[in-house]
Amino acid sequence: MKYLITSLFLITTIFAQTGLEIAQQIDAKKKPKDMTSKTSMVMTNAKGKTRTNTMFSKTMDDSKKQIIWFLSPADDKGVAFLKIEHDNKDDEMRMWLPAFKKVRRISSKRKGDSFMGSDLSYEDMTNRNTDENIYTRLDDESIDGVLCYVLEIVPNAAQKSTYSKHVTWVDQNTLNLVKENSFDQKGQLKKAKTFQFQQVKDYYVMAEIFVKDVQKNHTTSVLIKEIQLDTGINNNLFQEKNLKRIPKN
């Protein structure tokens, strides 16, 4: 009887969780202090033609600070991107364009623009603050045998998001993202995304992202490899002056 009561209590507690509470649990997951990685990004258009970029990336503070240097192809080599997210003001985003010898600042009005021709926008590359979205828990679903929480996430008006909402599937066991559908301002499905994680040390870190722009029939596959965690990246790295030189490691 005691076991039954305990089990019923746990079941009731799980189902009583709201969408916001689940989102807060995801935010509270153990995360590395910093991460270094190499990434390949394969873009495929509606005719099946592909283009591949390789990048070197360093991040801190749950990717709120990120700097990316493009290594290939040759016409993109040296291009670099800096992102610094802020809680109480607009995020900073800058792109170093060596061919023009200039740094281009990316304003919040352009956060819906494509990142280097991919199906990821600048908005897709930023974190979501729980206090800037409305979270609604939908019915749980299984994806390929993985039991998932399903959340509807609606950005508040102050964000001026390019999306009207997201529907996100989250692994109930690991709290890792599994799948997400993002809808445009007309309520039409815009992007379908899937995610793969790997365990490195005591952390689950993103290993692969697949994005399909269903309206353009264009896809982007991002493979994150050579991952190094907690190496002690210096906070001073995340400055505009460091965009112009690709580090050796």
Structural account:
The chain has 249 residues and is mainly beta. It has one domain: Lipoprotein localisation LolA/LolB/LppX (outer membrane lipoprotein receptor (LolB), chain A, Clam). It has 2 helices and 13 strands; from the N terminus they run H-H-E-E-E-E-E-E-E-E-E-E-E-E-E.
Globally, the shape reads globular
Total number of beta strands: 13
Overall pLDDT level? 92
How many helices does DSSP assign?
2
Structural class: mainly beta
- Beta-strand percentage? over 45%
The CATH architecture comes to Clam
| Total individual domains | 1
CATH homologous superfamily descriptor: Lipoprotein localisation LolA/LolB/LppX
Rg over CA atoms: 19 Å
SSE string: HHEEEEEEEEEEEEE
Widest beta sheet: strand line-up = 6-5-4-3-2-1-13-12-11-10-9-8-7
CATH fold annotation:
outer membrane lipoprotein receptor (LolB), chain A
Which CATH first-tier class would you pick? Answer: Mainly Beta
Poorly predicted spans: 2-14
Please describe the structure with a list of short key phrases separated by commas or semicolons.
2 helices; mainly beta; outer membrane lipoprotein receptor (LolB), chain A; 249 residues; disordered N terminus
Quick description:
The protein has 249 residues and is mainly beta.
Topology:
Blueprint: H1 2-16, H2 19-27, E1 34-44, E2 50-60, E3 65-72, E4 80-84, E5 92-97, E6 102-105, E7 133-143, E8 146-155, E9 165-171, E10 177-183, E11 189-200, E12 203-213, E13 218-229
Antiparallel strand pairs: 1-2, 1-13, 2-3, 3-4, 4-5, 5-6, 7-8, 8-9, 9-10, 10-11, 11-12, 12-13
